[in-house]
Amino acid sequence: MTTITLNDGSTQDLPPADALGGTNCGCPGVWRFEGATPGPHVAITALIHGNEVCGATALWDFIQHARRPRSGRLTLAFCNLAAFAKLDDAKKEECRMVDEDLNRVWGRLEASPAAMESYEIRRGREILPFIGDADVLLDIHSMSGEAPALGLVGRTAKNVDFARRIGVPPLLVQDAGHAAGLRLIDRHPFATPDEPAVAMLVECGQHFSRAAFEVAAQAVDRTVAVFLDGSGLAPLPAQSVIEVTQAVTIQSGSFRFTTDWPNMARVPRAGTLVAYDGAVEVRTPYDDAFMIMPASDRYRRPGLTAVRFGRLV
User: Fold this and answer.
1) Between 20 and 30 A from 250 (CA), which of 133, 148, 225, 279?
2) Taking a C-beta distance cutoff of 8 angstroms, is the pair 52, 142 a contact?
3) CATH of domain 2-229
4) Contacts from 107-111 at CB under 8 Å and sequence distance 24+?
5) DSSP bridge partners of 216
6) Nearest-angstrom CA–CA distance, 89 and 119
7) Helix (H, G, I), strand (E, B), or coil: what is residue 299?
8) Distance (Å, rounded) from C-alpha 251 to C-alpha 300?
């Protein structure tokens, strides 16, 4: 068991990497459980990034408590096992990936030449046969900055409906993804409007915050309850939806924000200068613009997303 220090100074035990790499269905890190009666296939993924550990703990607790769905099929996947295996309490931020971002490779799995394969490409190909046919996909993440939990639902109304059925998290974000590559939730059939399969990526809160662990566990429990157990759920406050209208992709090697904008900062006035991309000014496109997940210094490179602008709908 690995113990890490959380942001509030408390500690959290994490499951060991070799345990997460076990399997009951032939693919390392993937676990499958069948209900007693027919029902949908629900897939829940964690550790797309090795330092986003809240989802891994929620899924491992589920397995350890020997919980099984009443109906359908439940697939639990611990994704970037090699990155997670590098986790060290003194350098927790440095185990996000091995070669590249696993959450940007899902449009290249079928096309990447063998000579250009990364660990993440190979791992994506291993996992996809077990989760690609899911009727419901819940993809659990966390964020580098302090922020409320967010549910990223792509551009289709069906994914908003999915999020509303489970009732978490309180804020939903409709967006079109990133120029740098396709996320898992953006693949067919999850992002195809006329297909029934639904998906949501939950950003549970800041990495290594107690709140992120709580949100991850709640999201797992409520998804299983709604789709596989037929359980009644305690009502939660209505969710708000923010529509992303513009993603700012970094063009130069000298992108900088005008100040340390917090995640989900709401900028009152249109035209407010918020960043420079080299000599190019980046300004808010409308009043009351939300700045969604501004990139930290570590992730400011040409081709990556610097920030997304959104508005309440």
Assistant:
1) 148
2) yes
3) 3.40.630.10
4) 107/181, 107/182, 107/186, 107/187, 108/181, 108/182
5) none
6) 23
7) helix
8) 10
* Dihedral class, residue 154 (left if φ above 0, else alpha if ψ from -120 to 50, else beta): left
pLDDT number for residue 199: 98
Say how far apart CA 206 and CA 172 lie, in whole Å.
Answer: 16
pLDDT at 113: 67
3-state SS, residue 92? helix
Closest by CA to 187, choosing from 123, 116, 110, 115, is 110
Cβ-Cβ contacts under 8 Å for 204 (sequence gap 6 or more): 54, 55, 140, 141, 142, 149, 169, 211, 212, 213, 215, 216, 219
Q: How far is CA 93 from CA 17, 53, 112, in A?
A: 17, 11, 28
What pLDDT, on the 0 to 100 scale, is given for residue 2?
82
pLDDT, one tens digit for every residue, the chain (313 residues): 789 999 999 999 999 999 999 999 999 999 999 999 999 999 999 999 999 999 999 999 999 998 889 999 999 999 999 999 999 998 888 899 999 999 999 999 987 666 678 999 999 999 999 999 999 999 999 998 888 999 999 999 999 999 999 999 999 999 988 888 999 999 999 999 999 999 999 999 999 999 999 999 999 999 999 999 987 788 888 999 999 999 999 999 999 999 999 999 999 999 999 999 999 999 999 999 999 999 888 778 999 999 999 999 8
Token pair in block for residue 195: 């297909």
Q: Which two tokens stand for residue 11?
A: 């500690």
Place of tokens 């549910």: 151
Q: Are 48 and 103 in contact (CB under 8 A)?
A: yes
C-alpha to C-alpha distance for 28 and 161, rounded to whole angstroms: 32
Extents of the domains making up the chain? 2-229, 244-312
Which class is 244-312 in CATH? Answer: mainly beta
Report which of 174, 123, 160, 200 is spatially closest to residue 290, judged by C-alpha positions.
174
